[in-house]
Amino acid sequence: MLLRFWQDPRKTAVRRWLFQIHFYAGLLAGILWTVVGLTGSAIVFVPELRRLEVPGWTRVEPMAQQLSVETLVGRFQRERPTDRMHSIYYDFTPDWGLNFRSVAANGDRIHSFIDQYRGTVLGSVNYNHSALQWVYDLHSDLQGGNSGLRANAWFAFTLIAASTTGLLLWWRGRRYWKLGFEYRTKASWKRQVWDLHNLGGFCFYLPLLLLSLSGAYYAYEPAYASTVAALTGGPAEIAPPKATQPGAARRSLDEIQDNGLLALPGSVPSMIIFPASKGDVFTLRLRLPSDAHRIGLNWVYVDPSTAQVLRVDRFDQQPLGVKIIRLLTPLHYGTIGGITTRILWVAVGLMPGVFFLTALLMWWNRVLSKKLRRSSSRPVGREETKLPASVRLEINAIA
């Protein structure tokens, strides 16, 4: 059977079954793949879109020296005294303000933009009521919370099945496989639609596979970690250390940041993540010049009460399983490899919609339009003219 599929797949029953899986998976899930793909293409540039969402709040006029982190946090807390600090997000251009992320008393997530040279709070956005966040949530969980997250994961698995069966359908046999790379620009539009579907499915198979697998991770993180650990024979996750004196007064934020940077020479700060509860530590996300990731994949853990570095997690020194898990998020959002990867990921996100549209056109050309023509050209007999119109329509539909 495998040899026959290799030689001439069109004469095998396997290919007919593959077509059924490919066709019905696409028919049932195509609209959702299109929506998730379109929203995914948009949020590839979510850092830039966040700033476009609040024009005038993000640009600052650089000065010779920035204010200390402690001073900036103090001024922010005077503006929003009931908020709990979550993190500080740095950008790597001197004319972009800092992004302070906090949690309001009612649980809403707040993004505030701060002039790091003057200490001015430029403005705040409630991300529980943000249009951009609505798009983000539609992409991640279909606006359905945990249930939507799991449903989205299964649609991702369905996309893997449709893409894989499509790749097998692309195979024409040992003698004719080169035909799969043809795109006939001078052919009829119907033929070009087929070529676009066929060639595009082959070219974008691997990126779609990576996006589907990495996207499903968020619904089944423990299962992914266990699977990766079993496959690599080592840990896939390493828990952060705990504070030495839970509940004790913290040291200066500048001392905490400076000690973290000294522990990883040559690095620059990307994020400072504040302790969420007693016993937690400060987590510094740091970027090295050699990092392919936009904000780096290195973590430094600093004790709040002593400002001592408890552990340094350099990405290039982590076990293989930890590297794989930590790469899933930047891989999914295209933040590895710079602007080229991000543009490619935008194109990949558009492809499920292209495949769905071309599949509908092919279905119309090959099946639906022919049935419609046969139905409209069928002569009406005398015995049928005596029947009510509704009965004649039912007979034609069955015929």
List keywords for this structure.
eight-stranded antiparallel sheet; 14 helices; 3 domains; Nuclear Transport Factor 2, Chain: A; 399 residues; alpha+beta
What topology emerges from the helices and strands here?
Layout: H1 2-7, H2 13-43, H3 46-52, H4 69-79, E1 84-89, E2 98-103, E3 109-114, E4 121-126, H5 131-141, H6 145-170, H7 189-203, H8 205-216, H9 221-232, H10 253-263, E5 268-273, E6 282-287, E7 298-302, E8 309-313, H11 320-333, H12 339-377, H13 382-385, H14 389-398
Antiparallel strand pairs: 1-2, 1-5, 2-3, 3-4, 5-6, 6-7, 7-8
Helix pairs in contact: 2-5, 2-6, 2-12, 6-7, 6-8, 7-12, 8-11, 9-11
Please characterize this protein's 3D structure.
The protein is an alpha+beta fold. It has helices at residues 2-7, 13-43, 46-52, 69-79, 131-141, 145-170, 189-203, 205-216, 221-232, 253-263, 320-333, 339-377, 382-385, 389-398; strands spanning 84-89, 98-103, 109-114, 121-126, 268-273, 282-287, 298-302, 309-313. α7 runs antiparallel to α12 (339-377). The longest helix is centred in the last third of the chain and has 39 residues, at 339-377. The protein is elongated and about 85 Å long. It starts with a helix and ends with a helix.
